[in-house]
Specification:
The protein is mostly helical. It has helices at about 5-15, 40, 50-70, 75-85, 90-100, 110-120, 130-150, 165-180, 180-195, 215-225, 230-235, 245-250, 265-280, 285-300, 310, 315-324.
């Protein structure tokens, strides 16, 4: 459960890097010398937090915190920043970047999913102009999902940014409110890719994972299958507390939090905490699942700000685990 003190801690952390321009890692193909530009020129909104997708989900985080805790000290600053940044002319600049040549793979699919999650969060505040301003960018990424998914013959079963399941969790939740046709595409492809999966024997974690490929697949199918999900989950994880899935129940160990890729494993612990919480009520012994989630959460929460390589993104996954 997220309390006010933790919310303020997360907000302070994220406001500290949301507009921090350096260091910054671009996802860009240069077509010529004219493409060379500062991150703030290329991305008029999302040029902080080390990289584009971390800035996007940093915005998701602070906007969710401001909605859930409107009286916290940072809420006014968050909303004032949104009034300055989440505006049509800046959104137009972000859309224009997508119109450049060779941007089809830009942030696919991780950043796409998070952008839709941000728009979904903003839409919960219809009294403010932010969702309407961001909608052209959300629609652009929804169109990219709709064009890409039918061509993706095999899902990417990964614990990193290219994970199909994780991105589609966010995309499907957005689409249920904003794009009925995309719901149909996501559900059909998910059933095709994952519907027959049985008796998962996960080989996790890989050394630089920040997502659980196995558990993210289950969370996606929970959203896709509805009332049919428990039967699918029983076949997919027939022994959730047995030896074949022991690796999913053991928090990962981080050896160097100054190494951005090794620090991913803190994120894996937070992502697993979120997944176990999401799945608990559909598993036997829900209390056991929640205890596993708690152990993973406690393994990572003390380390959110140990180094900027984790600080620029980990609090988002902590918030996901505590509020979703």
């Amino acid at each position: 459960m997220l309390d006010a003190a933790t919310a303020e801690r997360f907000a302070t952390l994220t406001l500290g890097h949301l507009m921090r321009e350096w260091p910054y890692k671009l996802d860009q193909v240069l077509n010529g010398p004219a493409d060379l530009a500062l991150p703030a020129t290329l991305h008029p909104i999302f040029h902080g937090s080390f990289d584009w997708h971390s800035c996007v989900h940093g915005w998701w985080q602070v906007m969710r915190l401001a909605r859930l805790f409107p009286t916290m000290d940072q809420a006014a600053a968050i909303e004032a920043l949104a009034d300055r940044m989440l505006v049509p002319h800046r959104v137009a600049g972000e859309v224009a970047y997508l119109d450049r040549p060779m941007t089809g793979g830009f942030e696919r699919p991780y950043g796409w999913g998070w952008l839709l999650a941000l728009h979904d969060e903003l839409a919960l505040r219809p009294d403010r102009p932010w969702a309407a301003a961001l909608e052209p960018l959300a629609r652009a990424f929804a169109a990219r999902f709709a064009a890409y998914l039918p061509k993706l013959l095999y899902p990417v079963r990964s614990g990193k940014h290219d994970s199909t399941a994780f991105a589609l969790i966010h995309a499907l939740r957005w689409a249920r409110t904003h794009d009925a046709a995309l719901v149909g595409v996501i559900e059909a492809r998910s059933r095709l890719w994952f519907g027959a999966d049985r008796a998962a024997h996960p080989w996790e974690p890989s050394g630089e994972d920040f997502l659980s490929a196995t558990l993210c697949e289950a969370v996606l199918m929970q959203d896709v299958l509805g009332a049919d999900f428990r039967a699918w989950l029983g076949a997919f994880l027939p022994h959730p507390y047995g030896a074949p899935t022991a690796c999913l129940r053991t928090p990962a160990v981080v050896t160097d939090r100054s190494d951005g890729r090794l620090a991913h494993l803190d994120g894996l612990n937070l992502a697993r905490a979120w997944c176990w919480q999401c799945l608990a009520d559909d598993l036997p012994e829900p209390t056991s699942a929640r205890l596993i989630a708690h152990a993973h959460l406690q393994a990572a929460l003390p380390h959110l700000a140990d180094d900027y390589m984790g600080e620029h993104w980990l609090a988002t996954f902590a918030l996901l685990a505590l509020t979703d």
